[in-house]
Design goal:
- The protein has two domains: 119 residues, no CATH class; 309 residues, Spore Coat Polysaccharide Biosynthesis Protein SpsA, Chain A, CATH 3.90.550.10.
- 50% of the residues lie in helices and 15% in strands.
- Helix 1 runs parallel beside helix 12 and helix 11 packs across helix 14.
Length: 472
């Protein structure tokens, strides 16, 4: 009886891993097609044309900051040096307890102002607005602490442009990233309500005044594993989801949104706003709500992802911080799946109801539990000597071999677009793309299962990530 049960569980584990990797392969194939189409279209839009007056919409970049004194100056400097015809930078200090605001005031020689603006979204109170005489497109807002989503809503209220671009204050954009992410609007007649850029690990990179000086892979083993994860999730995953019109998440580190549609939808989800609810998954929740709104109104819309618009972000370099981050991500996922559960298998919500939501529920929510149970049963069966070579080969092929192929494919797609590393570093990362399947991925999966239980008793807050700052 026990022998049959253990063998059956491991056979089910094979089918589970085979199924999820088939999904990844399908997404990768769509991503290949999508990336080629984007690259071909980009060649028809030289920079000289993109700077034609009023061809591209004005953009307000909103950078929420909470205890970001280590990297805030580099990040804002990077934003002020972007190649784009019409944009402003709105930095929102969300009641930081460190010297974030002071560093901004001193470095950019800011003065307190009293500008007028429409408060379209309810937020925590603003304590002050600062501007610089010599930098007219920089605005710094100081407000009471209310969380990242509330800070973004304040930025939306203060912004003056028709599109808003939310980024993390600890991130640095490639010089032409804003130009690339906005120019995709010219490729389709549908109104773009949301578009995301490619998030790339900055650990190992060297920056000078917000610009990349030297590219290299991270020194820390933990960061190298995460680099592979980012390549897999963003380079192939997000493009694939975008191609099948099922993209449900745009990273809060770099996302562009139609301001009018955003305000009509109620802005980011906060307890201060009209929905009276907080969430740590504000990026995914907003994309889902904007998509639902467009589908209900039966209006043509576009939610897309631009694979060659790069945003560099600092990865957690120690295990404690990494697990804390993944706990926050898992809590956000569970919150959104619960909050928007009504979209599942509803014809009115098309692809996100029949493809996107089921995927996240089965593989991202239930997946960690299935994997954890499978690994436990596999270990027990191995100890008792109940597994034959055929089952062991099946498990290895479905879980390890397929995973390696997908990681290497994502790695290839990333490097063929823009060389991020030397040949020596490339070989090192290729090794980690294989090595991550023997311990690291299992550890992350187990932690996600544990985080699900913790989600029932934890509140949604910013949380702080221990940062080293960008290399100079």
């Amino acid at each position: 009886m026990i022998e049959t049960f253990l063998i059956d569980v491991n056979i089910y584990l094979i089918f589970y891993f085979a199924l999820i990797n088939i999904v990844y392969i399908i997404l990768f194939l769509f991503a290949l097609s999508g990336s080629k189409r984007q690259t071909d279209l980009a060649k028809t839009k030289p920079y000289t044309i993109l700077f034609t007056d009023q061809l591209l919409p004005g953009i307000s970049i909103i950078a929420p900051a909470y205890n970001e004194e280590v990297s805030i100056i580099d990040s804002v400097t990077s934003l002020l040096n972007l190649k784009y015809p019409d944009y402003e930078v709105v930095v929102v200090n969300d009641g930081s307890k460190d010297q974030t605001l002071l560093k901004l005031v001193e470095h950019f020689e800011l003065e307190r102002k009293h500008p007028s603006f429409v408060k379209s979204l309810n937020t925590k109170d603003i304590r002050g607005v600062y501007q610089a005489k010599d930098i007219p497109n920089l605005v710094v807002v100081d407000k009471q602490n209310g969380g990242k989503a509330d800070a973004l809503n304040v930025g939306i209220n203060v912004s003056k442009k028709p599109y808003v671009c939310g980024i993390d204050a600890d991130s640095i954009l490639e010089g032409d990233a804003l130009l690339k992410i906005a120019s995709v609007m010219l490729d389709d007649t549908k109104e773009t309500i949301a578009v995301g850029g490619n998030i790339y690990p900055a650990n190992g990179f060297t920056f000078d005044k917000g610009q990349v000086e030297k590219r290299s892979i991270p020194k820390e083993m933990l960061c190298r594993f995460q680099t592979i994860e980012y390549l897999r999730a963003f380079t192939s995953g997000r493009i694939g989801w975008s191609e099948i019109k099922s993209l449900m998440i745009i990273s809060g580190a770099f996302g562009l949104f139609h301001k009018g549609e955003l305000i009509k939808a109620g802005g980011y989800l906060t307890s201060s706003g009209s929905f009276k609810k907080d969430t740590v998954g504000e990026d995914m929740e907003l994309v889902v709500r904007l998509t639902m709104q467009a589908l209900k109104e039966k209006k043509p819309y576009l939610v897309s992802y631009v694979h060659n618009a790069y945003c560099y972000t600092e990865l957690p370099s120690d295990l404690k911080t990494l697990l804390k981050q993944r706990n926050r991500w898992q809590r956000g996922l569970i919150d959104i799946l619960s909050y928007h559960r009504d979209i599942a298998f509803k014809k009115d919500y098309k692809q996100i109801g029949f493809i996107g939501y089921p995927y996240f529920f089965i593989f991202e929510f239930l997946g960690p539990f299935l994997e954890l149970q499978g690994y436990i049963m596999l270990t027990v069966a191995l100890i008792l000597g109940l597994l034959n070579p055929v089952i062991l080969l099946g498990i290895f092929t479905a879980s390890i071999a397929f995973g390696i192929v997908i990681s290497l494919s994502s790695f290839y797609m990333s490097e063929k677009e823009m060389l991020m590393m030397s040949q020596k570093d490339m070989y090192k990362l290729l090794f980690y793309a294989i090595f991550e399947n023997f311990g690291y991925r299992q550890m992350i999966g187990m932690h996600r299962a544990i985080s699900t239980f913790k989600a029932l008793r934890e509140s949604g807050q910013w949380g702080t990530q221990k940062r080293k700052g960008f290399n100079k």
